[in-house]
Amino acid sequence: MKFPHDFLFGAASASYQVEGAWNEDGKGKTNWDVFSKIPGKTHEGTNGDVAIDHYHRYKEDIKLMAEMGLESYRFSISWARILPAGDGEVNEKGLEFYNNVINECLKYGIVPFATLYHWDLPLVLEEDGGWTNKRTAEAFVKYAEICFRAFGDRVKHWITFNETVMFCGLGYLKGAHPPGIQNDEKKYFQATHYVFYAHAKAVEAYKELKSYGEIGITHVFLPAYSVDDKQENVVAARHANEYETFWYYDPILKGEYPSYVVEQLKQKGWTPSWTEEELGTLKRNAGKNDFIGLNYYQPIRVEKYHEAVSSMEHSRETSTLAPGNPSFDGFYRTVKMEDKTYTKWGWEISPQGFLDGLHMLKERYGDLKMYVTENGLGDEDPIIDGEVVDVPRIKYIEEHLKVIKRAIKEGIHLKGYYAWSVIDLLSWLNGYKKQYGFIYVDHQDHLNRKKKLSFHWYKHIIETRGEEL
Ligand SMILES: C[C@@]1(C(=O)O)OC[C@H]2O[C@@H](O)[C@H](O)[C@@H](O)[C@H]2O1
């Protein structure tokens, strides 16, 4: 059986991780332009000043995507190229760059899938409180409307935010991402709320424009499973799903927060300062979402945790989602299990965990259109006789595509798959230690591009629409 004719085989990138040209053509500074240059924040001081120079080489890169037969390219727009000061004056050169990227995609019949926010926030807004300041939410809606008007005649698939739990969690709890604050639960929950509010306002604005495209949000999908049947561990898994999934998915898809978490925030004094207007906006617009984007890499296995965690000291290492760390509130701990398979960075490889999680989502949110907006293997790819022989990545993606095909057969409304990443790119904290792409970038030879084994494999899968999987 082939994948459905309207299922999109794609791959993804993010502006800060590929573009470079950090201060060219009128682009404003972002939080990451500054944060990545604070000594010790990133592996070997890597940053996005050049990245893989996609800003100047996007034509070559999109031509390679076309040679792979890629049906859709998910990229992100850097807010600070469009509005250098976050709000205020529009930078025409910024609009020009993304118009060129979109037109280059369409030249090859590649469907552009645009993410408005993939963590690079204009510095002016970060310095004014970032996502804990409602001004940022309001500025985002203005930025979104500018993009809808400039690109919406050709871009018909929009994602507002990528992985809110990551930029809020690492920004305000672990401190590994800007603004680098640790253990501030009040700011963490406040930031998530203003992001959800900004999303709902952007959806409302998009629908009013009647561009007849679709809009949604991309969340991490990290289904939590108990390590065994012990009641306290089953309760720990429920707690993890409430805080890591339902807190993020409910306000978008139901228009209200999960009562389990709301009650506990009240008791702990972490309730965001939200207004009736904001909560009403969430409720009014929940039904207008066209899809949810899932970034799935792994599930988590959890057990009840019994030690105090007051003001844990965090590091880059405790921020990598590898198992063994307690949750921010100390309620549970993730566990590495003997009978599971893991990547070199300790992420479990579990296509079955994805399938089980998809059914959990369908049970809670109904027959909702979904895209896998990220899935892939971060690895140190072996180079043999000058060829990048990334067989582990082929196996990883093959197993996940098999499960996606099965999920569709079981009635899950999955409409596309975007491998992370289309091309090797800068990791926020890990530089170029692990690669994710179908295309190799040679940092020892002028960032020259080279097709990997997986490039040819994915090309075949797309051509045959995965019939053999
Ligand atoms: C933490 C990490 C990684 O480097 O492994 O997870 C996988 C992937 O997720 C994406 O949303 C990030 O933009 C990208 O940089 C990657 O980030």
Can you give a write-up of this model?
The structure is a single chain. The protein is α/β, with parallel strands linked by helices and 469 residues long. It has one domain: Alpha-Beta Barrel (TIM Barrel), CATH 3.20.20. It is 40% helix and 15% strand. It has 15 helices and 15 strands. Strands 1-2-3-4-5-7-10-13 form an 8-stranded parallel beta barrel, surrounded by 5 helices. Strands 6-8-9 form a 3-stranded mixed β-sheet, with helices on one face. A two-stranded antiparallel ribbon has the order 11-12. Helix 13 packs parallel to helix 14. The longest helix is centred in the middle third of the chain and has 25 residues. The termini are close together. Ligand 8VR binds next to loops.
The first-to-last residue Cα distance is 8 Å
Strand elements, count: 15
- Strand and helix order: EHHHEHHEHHEHHEEHHHEEEHEEEHEEEH
CATH superfamily: Glycosidases
Count the DSSP helices.
Answer: 15
- Gross morphology is globular
Per CATH, which architecture?
Answer: Alpha-Beta Barrel
Number of domains: 1
InterPro entries: GH, GH_1_N_CS, Glyco_hydro_1, Glyco_hydro_1_AS, Glyco_hydro_1_beta-glucosidase
Family: Belongs to the glycosyl hydrolase 1 family.
GO molecular function: beta-glucosidase activity
EC number: 3.2.1.21
Secondary structure layout plus pairing:
Elements: E1 8-12, H1 15-18, H2 31-35, H3 54-68, E2 72-76, H4 79-82, H5 92-107, E3 111-117, H6 123-126, H7 134-151, E4 157-162, H8 164-172, H9 185-209, E5 214-220, E6 224-226, H10 231-253, H11 259-268, H12 276-285, E7 291-295, E8 300-304, E9 332-334, H13 351-365, E10 370-374, E11 383-384, E12 387-388, H14 391-409, E13 414-420, E14 439-442, E15 448-451, H15 453-463
Parallel strand pairs: 1-2, 1-13, 2-3, 3-4, 4-5, 5-7, 6-8, 7-10, 10-13
Antiparallel strand pairs: 8-9, 11-12, 14-15
Helix pairs in contact: 3-5, 7-9, 8-9, 9-12, 13-14
Residues 14, 17, 162-163, 295, 374, 378, 420, 427-428, 430 line the site of the ligand C[C@@]1(C(=O)O)OC[C@H]2O[C@@H](O)[C@H](O)[C@@H](O)[C@H]2O1.
